[in-house]
Amino acid sequence: MTELSKDILARFQVRKTKTQKTAFIERMQAAYPELTVEAGGFGKPRNLVIGNIETAQVVFTAHYDTCARLPFPNFITPLNIPLYLLYQLLITLPLLALMFCAVHFITLWTGEFPIGYAAMWLVLAAFLWMMLGGPANQTTVNDNTSGVLTLCEILAAMTPEEREKAAFVFFDLEEAGMFGSSRFAQVHKKEMKDKLLMNFDCVSDGDHFLLVQSKKARLRWENVICEAFGPVPDKEVHIERASRAIYPSDQSQFPCGVGVAALNRKKGIGLYMDKIHTKRDTVLDERNILYLRDASRRLTTLL
Ligand SMILES: [Zn+2]
Q1: How far is the CA of 101 from the centre of ligand 1 (A)?
Q2: Residue 3 CA neighbour count, 13 Å, CB half
Q3: Residue 137: pLDDT band by 50, 70, 90 thresholds?
Q4: E strands, 127-272, where?
Q5: Which residues contact 30 (CB under 8 A, 6 or more apart)?
Q6: What's the CA-to-centroid distance between 226 and ligand 1, angstroms?
Q7: Å from CA of 3 to ligand 1 middle
Q8: What's the predicted TM-score (pTM) here?
Q9: In angstroms, what is the span from residue 65 Cα to ligand 1's centroid?
Q10: 130 CA distance to ligand 1 centroid (A)?
Q11: Is 3-69+137-302 a CATH 3.40.630.10 domain?
């Protein structure tokens, strides 16, 4: 990997506060003088853009913001939808129980229902704060330093002709609710209407690549995507329709979005991701980044 990628891993892995993000942006500006910062919109995201969005044939994207550390992993099984929903329910149940306890016992204790009711909402607010505003996860190798490194490696490897055909966007505020990408989609609605967008989110842990294509992307580019990302030694590539998978990330904001992730597989579970948003998010399989770099270059050439 390039020196820039190594430096990001070593010194800029936590990008949650304004100061941390500014330090990362300054490092990126030093590496890419042509980088522009598009700021503004709900939550004040700062998206980083390299290349010409209007003339590019393909836009490669990854979110650079860091999530809060959670006491439980963000366990996801994109192709096993019943299990996906079951896990979400399992996380929600203790919260609902806590909210119920708050309203019940505080009302009993104070004799005032409005106070119990307020306590219930306070519990919910505290939970949401923990999810979004809590202390940053200190290890973000897979989510989503791996996506950031993928874009940097593609940028470093591309020829000037390939660079001409591609643009790159590092999105802010994905974890808080995709505010960065939704702002970008709004501002660049016309340019992005018929443009292929490849989004890398959590790509360094697992031997199974999952590509989730929107309908429009599938109808227009499935052949070239299959050719570019085709069979790879020691790894498996699964190309799926967005309607048959749950992989919520920035690609979902765009008409021709394709989400790219790496996952592990277990019998009875299928493809899964189980370490992100915790201190166990430390797995970096460099082969994944290099494969995605080469596949992205092939794709750009084919377009
Ligand atoms: Zn992510």
Answers
A1: 33
A2: 3
A3: confident
A4: 166-171, 196-200, 208-213, 236-241, 257-266, 270-272
A5: none
A6: 24
A7: 23
A8: 0.91
A9: 8
A10: 17
A11: yes
